[in-house]
Amino acid sequence: MNGQSSHQQQNDGRHDDDAALTDFLASLMDYTPTIPDELVEHYLAKSGFQCPDVRLTRLVAVATQKFIADVATDALHQCKARQSSIIKDKRDKQQKDKRLILTMEDLSKALGEYGVNVKHQEYYADSPSAGLDPASRDD
Amino acid sequence: MSTPKVKVALADHSDRNRLPKADFRSCAVLAVYKVAALVPPLLPPFRFFFDLAQLNPKSQGFCLNVVGMMINGEISVLAGLNDGDGKDSVKFSIERENRHSKRLGFDEFAQAIARIAVAQICEGLGFQSFQQSALDSLADVGVRYIREIGKVASSYANLGNRSECNVFDVIQGLEVLNSVQGFSGFSDVAHSLSGSGVVRDIVRYVGKAEEIPFAYLIPDFPVVKERKLNPSFAETGESPPDDHIPSWLPKYPNPETYLNLDSKNEKEVKITVDKEVQEVENQREVERPLMNLQQKLICNGSELGFEQRAAESNPFLAPPLRPEEKEVSLPILSFKLLDEAVGHHQNHVIDENHVSRANEVATNGTCEDEDKCKILSNGRPNIHFKFRNGKKNLGRMETSPRVECIEKLSLWFGDGYDGKDEKKRILWQNMEYPPELPHL
After folding, report:
1. Could you say which of B42, B183, B204, B328 has the lowest number of CB atoms within 10 Å?
2. CATH code of residue B162
3. B185–chain A nearest CA distance, Å
4. Count of domains forming chain B
5. What sections of B106-246 are H helices per DSSP?
6. Domain encompassing residue B199
7. Dihedral sign, CA of A44, A47, A51, A52?
8. Distance, in angstroms, between B191 CA and closest chain A CA?
9. Boundaries of each Bromodomain associated domain copy (chain B) (predicted)?
10. pLDDT at A57 > cutoff 90
């Protein structure tokens, strides 16, 4: 009796999950992810993925978008933490340093959390003024 | 000696920028030179670099590279050296063409789109700017993420004996990729895929995140050109000429295109083989001195009707004059240079000779008719060489920086100036306190 009810419950739960998943997939039809469908389709086709369903493409797009957003959020936190520590030291440079710039340094730390080991290329020359205001670039 | 392959190519691609590529890369110098003689606007710069290559073994590699690039259309054809400003025009056109010939690499379009999308996501999160390398890496990681999902999903689909993926394959792929981070319900081995923690996370993200559509409209890519096949026998309604040919095969080309060739076939094959053998021999002769090469070219050039016709309209195409057939003003060397060259370096002198000879050949090489010669030689100013000794004297190392500076100054006052007197004069003028020289 007990076992049967738990089985029932499981079944109900599964039905709920299925319904939720179906609803979610249906809602993806109206949702436009930032990563365009064409790009996702192109790369999925390259990796041997075959499916004409747009919803699946959108699902992959949304998942990738979430991944990138997670990484970028971590990098943003790194950036803010670094800036607050710098500002403690030099208050006069506060204005200049306040811009939030995605740097390789922060990104490699953030990606490290996700199992991607990226190092700043040793001899890669990003221009030192990259991402700064055109006005502050002259200083 | 002429190379039939080259001729055909030129007939097809009269436009110099569309000269065929692969054939010429491996072409021997002689063959390249031959092409140069056939294409009117290529001639003067070609000749210049070839002469230079032949005369100066040090610069040979560079010169041949330049010629190769000219043929490939990577460098535009130069305006000609007879404006007396050859070097500048060479440099200019190399730079300009580099910008033009930067072709899109494999998959660059998709990568650019990925970069834009990632930049948009980052902007939505609050980033104001980015380093280019960071954006590139993040976009690359994102692209790899997509491909990894596709790979895992399709392998799960194949495991289930399907070729098309479904939602559960994708979810399994996502679970595999998220297993580094972990997600709720990961520990339960028998958890249902539809209620997976990964999916719930994504649902939450979609509900929370702002919807930022991609900034541009994208055309469908990659563009695949449709191949146009020749119609088959069945499509045109003809019956194949023989029973053993099935009707679905493409039909024969026009009979006129192949019927007449049969009789000459063997002879022509022999001729072409001979020519190819000769070509290979020519390739071995590449390292012979220039004068030998040029004389051969003169003999050969007159055989071609094409060249003769072109020579009437274009002075550059006329066979070159032999040395000493026409008087040309020699380059004027400054006295200082001569003195220095004799005094310091023997090598220096040799180099000068090379260059001046190269120029002589370049001036000699291009005209046949008298009046055309006049136009050319009149339009060309005398060539003045200015050399400076790049190496410092040993003695200078002991002099003070101030004296060295003055020595540099003295260079501004021309050749005949006595540097030492000037040095002293400026030294006295510039110093607030008189120098501790014995005679003051």
Report:
1. B204
2. 1.10.20.10
3. 13
4. 2
5. 108-125, 132-159, 167-178, 197-208, 233-236
6. 108-208
7. positive
8. 10
9. 107-183
10. yes
